[in-house]
UniProtKB/TrEMBL annotation:
Listed name of the protein: Src like adaptor 2a
Residue stretches spanning the membrane: none
Domain SH2: 100-200
Organism per entry: Oryzias latipes
Pfam families reported in the protein's UniProt record: SH2
Domain named SH3: residues: 38-98
Superkingdom in the source lineage: Eukaryota
Record keywords, A-Z: Lipoprotein, SH2 domain, SH3 domain
Molecular function as annotated in GO: signaling adaptor activity
Length: 261
């Protein structure tokens, strides 16, 4: 009589993993640390094509492509946005696994895709490291926009791999798989520039993410407020605040501003 052995499998945190996907079939089932997750590979365009002036593109960078046929270093692909076919070099595309693991993409192209409008702070991808290409080394690229136009909004972190095939960014925190690394940093920044929020947007695969509305509050006219009085005739602004605002207006706009008393 045979006996079945029950295996105990360590699970990664999955509190926010489901927020990365728009449908159950897109959700990676990699809650199992160290397990191999089977998921359909996606081909993504890295360029607008063609690039000739006065020529309407048949495909756009950052969109999902359907492979129609392959011919050595070239392939025929169909755009998910225009529906048209293009005959292009294979290096015009990148392969994406698990929704965030990009193969065949450079640091520059990673920055270009992450800075597209549908991506928000915390959007990310993992790619092959250019400095250690071919050595199964990776880099994590994260979008973190700031008010400074001089700073590159995409930050890059080297992902190191130990001899036992565990991964880490910070030596004090190691993970048995890239899935576990992603799940951990989706719950806490833990030393990164920000928390991971969603994989890099892919046109034709994801639902467009809403851009938050910017609400501009009306500018306060302090002189008008100073003239308003309560029913008992008292000013709505205290004397101390009136003096501070008067000094500020005089320093910034000249001496012509004064408060009515």
């Amino acid at each position: 009589m045979t006996q079945r052995r029950s295996a105990k499998i360590q699970r990664c945190p999955v509190k926010q993993a489901s927020s990365f996907y728009n449908s159950p079939d897109q959700m990676f089932t990699a809650s199992l640390c160290g397990s191999v997750v089977l998921q359909e590979n996606v081909i993504v365009s890295l360029h607008d094509y063609p690039t000739f002036e006065d020529t309407e593109p048949t495909m756009f960078a950052g969109e999902r492509l359907l492979i129609v046929s392959e011919d050595g270093d070239f392939m025929t692909v169909r755009s998910s946005t225009t529906g048209r076919d293009s005959y292009i070099p294979t290096n015009y595309t990148a392969k994406v696994m698990h929704r965030w693991l990009f193969t065949g993409i450079s640091r520059y192209k990673a920055e270009e895709l992450l800075q597209k409008p549908n991506n928000q702070n915390g959007s990310f991808l993992i790619r092959e490291s250019e400095t250690n290409r071919g050595k199964n080394s990776h880099s994590l690229s994260i979008l973190m926009r700031t008010n400074s136009s001089r700073l590159n909004p995409v930050k890059h972190y080297r992902i190191y791999r130990l001899q036992n095939n565990w991964y880490y960014i910070s030596p004090g925190l190691t993970f048995p798989s890239l899935h576990c690394l992603v799940e951990h940093y989706s719950e806490s920044a833990n030393g990164l520039c920000c928390q991971l929020t969603a994989p890099c947007f892919i046109q034709g695969l994801d639902t467009p993410r809403p851009v938050p509305n910017i609400i501009r509050r009306p500018t306060i006219n302090w002189k008008d407020i100073s003239r308003k009085r309560t029913d008992s005739g008292h000013s709505l602004v205290s004397e101390g605040l009136r003096e501070a605002i008067t000094s500020y207006l005089q320093m910034t706009e000249g001496d012509e501003h004064s408060w009515d008393t």
